[in-house]
User: What shape does this take?
Amino acid sequence: MLSRRRPAATLAVSVVLLSALAACGDDTADEPEGLDGLAAVEISGDYGKEPEVTWKDQMTAEDVDVKVLSEGDGEKVADGDQVLVNFWVGNGFTEKKTFSTYDEGGAPETVPITDEVSPIFKDSLVGQTIGSRIAVTASAEDAFGESGNPGLQIGNRDTVLLIFDLMEAPEPPKLVDVPARRQPKVIERKGEPVRMNFDGIKAPSAEGPLLRTIVKQGKGATVTEDMSLTVNYLGSVYGKKKPFDESYSKEPATFELTGVVAGWTQGLAGVKVGSRVLLTIPPVLGYAAQEQAGIPANSTLYFVVDIISAK
Assistant: This one.
C-alpha cells in the first residue's frame, strides 16, 4: 500500500489516446460530405473552461490539422514530459461531443508525452506552451488507428475534433510540522499501534497541507530522499476504525524513499532513524483520484510510521 504505484492507465490514455481494438464504423460507407477540418466548427469559450463547439456541417479531414486557439506563456512541452491536460472530444460525422474532462466529476489528466500515447496527441502537443488551448482535427484512423475508437462512439470512417487545454500544474502542498493535538490519536495494544482515533479531529480538506508530527525523536542518522528505509507503519483514512494497511502484525517494510507516495518522501526526509512520525497526507501527495483497496478516491491518508533503519 506504500508504493508510488503508477496509476492504471488514465482515462486519457486508455480511452482517448490509444488506438481501439475493434471497429464500429462501416468500411464500405461513402465518403462523407461536409467541410474540411476546423472550417466545419466554431469554437469559443475561455481556456480552462469547457469549450463551446458549434457545428456548421459534417467534418471531413484529409490531413491532421493542428491550430493554436490561444497561446499560453508557460514552458514548452518536450518529449518525455508529464503534462496536465483537460480535453474535449467530438465526432465530426455525428457532430456530437463524445467525451470531456470538463464534465461533472471530471478532472484534468496527467499524461506522459511518450510513445505510450497516440502519435497524434504527442505530435500535436510537443513544442506547445503550457497555458495554451489547441484544436486538432483528423480522421479516426489518424487519431486512433484503423479501428477508430468504439469506446468514444467514433467509427473507423468518422472524423475527430480534439481540443486540449494544457493546464498549469498546481502548487504542491507545503510541509507543516504540527503538535500531536492536530493529529488523530494512535491506539495501541501491547505497545503496538492497532488503529487511529479521530475524535476531535476535523474532516480534512482535500487542499490541505502535509502535516507532520514527530512523536518520538530518534537518535540515528538523518533520513535523506536517496535512502532505503525499513519501517513499521499503520495507515488509515478519516473516521475509519480499521486501518487500510499496517505492518506491525506482520514484518517491517523496506523500500526506497523515492518509490513511495510523495507524502512519505517529503514527510520522512529530514527525520532521524528511531523516530515515530505521524503524517497527514493530502490526496495530491497520496493516491489522488486513484481508488485503492480500502482507500476511496481523493482520500487524505493518515499514517503512524516508526523508522527502524535507513541506508
